[in-house]
Write a structure and sequence with these properties.
The complex is a heterodimer of chains A (116) and B (157). Chain A is mainly β and 116 residues long. Chain A has a single domain, classed as Umud Fragment, subunit A. Chain A has 2 helices and 7 strands. The radius of gyration of chain A is 13 Å and the shape is globular. Chain A starts with 9 loop residues before the first helix and ends with a strand. By secondary structure, chain B is mainly alpha-helical. Chain B has a single domain, classed as Up-down Bundle (Four Helix Bundle (Hemerythrin (Met), subunit A)). Chain B is flat and about 85 Å long. In chain B, 24% of the residues are buried. The chains are: A mainly beta (116), B mainly alpha (157). Chains A and B meet through strand 1, strand 4 and helix 2 of A and helix 1 and strand 1 of B. Strand 1 of chain A pairs parallel with strand 1 of chain B, so a sheet runs across the interface.
Chain lengths: 116, 157
């Protein structure tokens, strides 16, 4: 489990500079206490090119019904290679697979690798 | 050094947002909010009907009556509108095409319930206010069955 998300060092920073990481700012409280609103993270868009998402991974996904919305959630279950259950760490303040069902592999935009 | 650079970047080049919201939109829906508003409508309807109209020559009583009836009507109006808004949010945000397959008359159910909200504004009608409560009870049953949960319907009053 990615319970302790490290702040990225020089390597992550260089990967971001070379566009192999994308930067996002967290809005909302569904990933507290790990991520507070306003904190920034880096994601690796190519993380799942060779390996598959695993339970415990923190990911940025597109909302299955509102494609303009990007969500940050944790994968809690893998139904099969195509469908994943995602949930917020803070279930009281999270909209996740409990509401919109599993998300498809194609909705996963990348894995969160570090805090920025 | 690196941290300083990062802080500068954060300050000057804001990153796009990822939502960690309670329904960035939040998914917390419950027909109870519509039911509470509709109960207020029913209660105000009963209270308005129960008011005694004073003798017009009694100025003090007439002023008090007008004030009270105005307040009751204002609350009825406001709560009927709130009930309608809550119903529309459920209808358009919570319910998905898959639910419509399960409940083919879903659109009709909500349309009629929303119409009843308007009807309770237009007139002081015990019949409409009661019909609105019944419609919301029906929506309560549909809503919770889509979540496979057995939630007993109740009223506060």
């Amino acid at each position: 489990m990615n319970d302790d998300l490290k702040t990225g060092g020089l390597r992550e920073f260089l990967l971001w500079l070379t566009r192999r990481r994308r930067r996002f700012r967290v809005s909302g409280r569904s990933m507290t206490p790990l991520l507070e609103p306003g904190q920034e993270v880096l994601i690796n868009p190519a993380a799942y090119r060779h390996t598959l998402p695993q339970p415990g991974d923190i990911v940025v996904v597109r909302h299955p019904y509102q494609p303009h919305l990007r969500l940050i959630k944790r994968i809690t279950d893998v139904l099969d290679e195509e469908r994943y259950i995602v949930k917020g760490d803070n279930p009281l303040e999270s909209t996740d697979s409990r509401t919109f069902g599993p998300v498809g592999f194609e909705h996963i935009l990348g894995q969160v690798t570090s805090r920025f | 050094m690196l941290n300083k650079i990062k802080s500068t970047i954060k300050a000057h080049f804001p990153a796009p947002e990822v939502q960690a919201h309670c329904d960035g939109p939040c998914g917390v829906y419950d027909p109870a909010s519509a039911r509470i508003a509709a109960e207020a409508v029913l209660s105000m309807t009963k209270k308005i009907m129960a008011l005694d109209v004073p003798d017009p020559s009694n100025k003090e009583a007439t002023v008090a009556y007008l004030n009270t009836v105005s307040r009751y009507v204002a609350i009825k109006e406001e709560q009927a509108h709130l009930a309608k808004t809550e119903l529309l949010v459920l209808w358009t945000d919570y319910f998905k095409p898959v639910h419509l397959e399960q409940y083919p008359d879903l659109h009709d159910t909500f349309w009629k319930a929303a119409k009843l909200c308007s009807a309770t504004k237009v007139a002081v009608s015990l019949e409409d206010a009661t019909a609105l409560m019944d419609a919301i009870q029906n929506i309560h049953n549909i809503f919770w069955s889509t979540k496979n949960r057995d939630v007993t319907y109740y009223t506060a009053s």
